[in-house]
Design goal:
With about 190 residues, this protein is mostly helical. Helix content is about 65%, strand content about 0%.
C-alpha cells in the first residue's frame, strides 16, 4: 500500500446493518458483505485465478478416521490457504498438530492402563510430545518428520521474533504445513 493510500475501516458498517438481518434482501446482504471484504482486504487477498491455482496445489484428502473437530479445523486451514490467509492457516495446522500429539499420547497411555499420565502429557511441549510418540513407536520417522515440519513452520511464523526474517516464504511454507498435515492424516488413524 502506498503511503498516500487511505485505509478503509468497518467502523460505520455495524451501525448500518439492521438488527433483523433476515429482513434484508439478497442484494442488500451482498452489498454489506462486499463492504466488509473491502474493509478487511490485505495484499495477500488472492484473486480468483490464484485461488484456483492454490486449490490445484493442495494434496488429495482421503481422511477416514479423524474426529469431526480435526476435519472442521483442516477445512478451515485449507480455506485460509486458498484465500491467502497464510498465518492463520499455519496457526491452524500447528493447533491441529498439537491436538493430534496430545490425543495420540493419551490414547496410547490409556490403552496401556496408565490414565494418570494423561494430564502430564499436556504439560509437555509439542516437540517433546512428538519425540515421545516416535520413541514409543506410534509415529514412524516419516510421520514424525511431517508433524515436526509443521511445528517448525508454525514457530517461524507465529513467534514474532522470526516473522520478518529475509528469505521467509510464507505462502510456500503454508502449503508445506498443510500438505504435511493432510498427508499425515491420510496415512494415520487418529480416532
Amino acid at each position: 500500500m502506498q503511503q498516500n493510500e487511505q485505509w478503509f475501516y468497518w467502523n460505520t458498517l455495524p451501525d448500518l446493518i439492521p438488527a433483523d438481518v433476515a429482513s434484508l434482501t439478497g442484494g442488500q446482504k451482498q452489498a454489506f458483505l462486499s463492504k466488509w471484504k473491502g474493509a478487511v482486504w490485505t495484499r495477500n487477498v488472492q484473486p480468483d485465478e490464484l485461488k484456483l491455482i492454490n486449490i490445484k496445489n493442495m494434496p488429495a484428502i482421503s481422511l477416514q478416521n479423524v474426529p469431526p473437530w480435526i476435519m472442521d479445523r483442516l477445512k478451515e486451514a485449507a480455506d485460509h490457504y486458498v484465500n491467502g490467509q497464510w498465518t492463520s492457516c499455519i496457526s491452524l495446522c500447528g493447533t491441529i498438530t498439537e491436538y493430534v500429539s496430545i490425543h495420540l499420547l493419551e490414547k496410547h497411555f490409556q490403552s496401556k492402563g496408565v490414565d494418570e499420565l494423561s494430564g502430564f502429557i499436556k504439560r509437555l511441549g509439542l516437540y517433546d510430545r512428538l519425540e515421545a510418540l516416535r520413541d514409543i513407536g506410534i509415529l514412524n520417522d516419516e510421520e514424525w518428520k511431517k508433524l515436526d515440519t509443521i511445528r517448525r513452520i508454525r514457530n517461524d511464523y507465529i513467534h514474532l521474533d522470526k516473522v520478518d526474517e529475509p528469505g521467509m516464504n510464507i505462502k510456500g511454507d503454508c502449503l508445506k504445513a498443510l500438505t504435511n498435515l493432510i498427508e499425515f492424516l491420510n496415512g494415520h488413524s487418529v480416532s
